[in-house]
Inverse folding.
C-alpha cells in the first residue's frame, strides 16, 4: 500500500507539472517519453526489446507521430512494415510472427492513444477548455478504475472476464460506468454553466448537454474497461504479470496507461463530434 501511495503521489506531481506548463511543449514531451517507455515495455513482453534496430524504429515512429501532423495510415504502415521486415531479415530467428504482430498492435495503441490525448492541448483557443478536456480524457480511465475498485470490493460477485482478469466483476464494472457518468456530467456541466465567452462549452449547459456529458462518461468508462482487459489479455498471452516495475504497486507505465489510451481516443472523437455538430432539440 505504501508503495502504491508513493507511486500515485509521484504521478500526481507529474500531472500537476503538465497542467502548470500546459501551454508549452512540455506536455507533448512528457507524453512522448511515457509512450516511448510503454513501447519498450510492450517489446520486452515479447522478448523483442533487445533488438535495437526494431526498438529504435518504433520509438522514432512514435516520436514523429507525436510531434508531426502525419497521416495516421503512414504511422500504421511504418510500424507494421518495420516488424515484418525485421522478422524476414532475421529469417524468423528473432521471434515469431504472432509476437511481432502483438508488439506492433500494442505500439499502435500506445502512439494513437497518446496522440489523441496530446491533441487536447490545442483543442480550443481557450486554455481552460483544452485543460478540462485533457483532464476528462484521463478521468474517464482513472476515475472509472477507482469507482470499479470500490463497487467491486463491496458488491462484486459475478466475474466480468473470468479467464482474462479473474478479479474484475460485473458489479465493479457497472459501478465504474455509473460513477464516471455522474462525475463527467457534474464536471462538464458545472464548467459549462460558468464558461467564459468564446468557450466551446459556452451555451452548452442545458439538460440535453448534461445528458450528453454523462453518456460520454459512461461510454468512455466502457472504453477504459476494454483497454484494461485488452492489456490484461496481452499480458496473459505473453506469460507476464505486469509490463514493468517502474511504478511500485502499479507495475509499468503501460500497466498504468492501459485504460487511458482507449479513453483518450474515444474522448477525442466524442467531444470533437459534440462541439462540431452540437445537439439539436
Amino acid at each position: 500500500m505504501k508503495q502504491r501511495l508513493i507511486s500515485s503521489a509521484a504521478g500526481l506531481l507529474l500531472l500537476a507539472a503538465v497542467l502548470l506548463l500546459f501551454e508549452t511543449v512540455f506536455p507533448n514531451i512528457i507524453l512522448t517519453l511515457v509512450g516511448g517507455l510503454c513501447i519498450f515495455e510492450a517489446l520486452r513482453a515479447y522478448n523483442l526489446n533487445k533488438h535495437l534496430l526494431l526498438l529504435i524504429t518504433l520509438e522514432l515512429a512514435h516520436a514523429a507521430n507525436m510531434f508531426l501532423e502525419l497521416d495516421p495510415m503512414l504511422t500504421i504502415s511504418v510500424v507494421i512494415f518495420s516488424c515484418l521486415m525485421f522478422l524476414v531479415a532475421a529469417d524468423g530467428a528473432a521471434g515469431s510472427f504472432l509476437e511481432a504482430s502483438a508488439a506492433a498492435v500494442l505500439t499502435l495503441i500506445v502512439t494513437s492513444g497518446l496522440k489523441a490525448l496530446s491533441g487536447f492541448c490545442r483543442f480550443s483557443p481557450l486554455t481552460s477548455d483544452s485543460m478540462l478536456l485533457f483532464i476528462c480524457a484521463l478521468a474517464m480511465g482513472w476515475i472509472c478504475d477507482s469507482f470499479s475498485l470500490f463497487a467491486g470490493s463491496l458488491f462484486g460477485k459475478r466475474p466480468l472476464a473470468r479467464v482474462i482478469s479473474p478479479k474484475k466483476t460485473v458489479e465493479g464494472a457497472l459501478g465504474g460506468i455509473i460513477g464516471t457518468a455522474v462525475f463527467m456530467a457534474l464536471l462538464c456541466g458545472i464548467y459549462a454553466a460558468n464558461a467564459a465567452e468564446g468557450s466551446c462549452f459556452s451555451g452548452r449547459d442545458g439538460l440535453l448537454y448534461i445528458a450528453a456529458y454523462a453518456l460520454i462518461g459512461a461510454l468512455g468508462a466502457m472504453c477504459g474497461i476494454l483497454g484494461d482487459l485488452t492489456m490484461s489479455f496481452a499480458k496473459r498471452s505473453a506469460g507476464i504479470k505486469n509490463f514493468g516495475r517502474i511504478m511500485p504497486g502499479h507495475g509499468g507505465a503501460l500497466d498504468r496507461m492501459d485504460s487511458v489510451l482507449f479513453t483518450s481516443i474515444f474522448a477525442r472523437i466524442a467531444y470533437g463530434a459534440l462541439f462540431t455538430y452540437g445537439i439539436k432539440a
Q: What stands out?
A: The longest helix spans residues 207-238. The longest strand covers residues 165-169. The chain has nine helices and two strands.
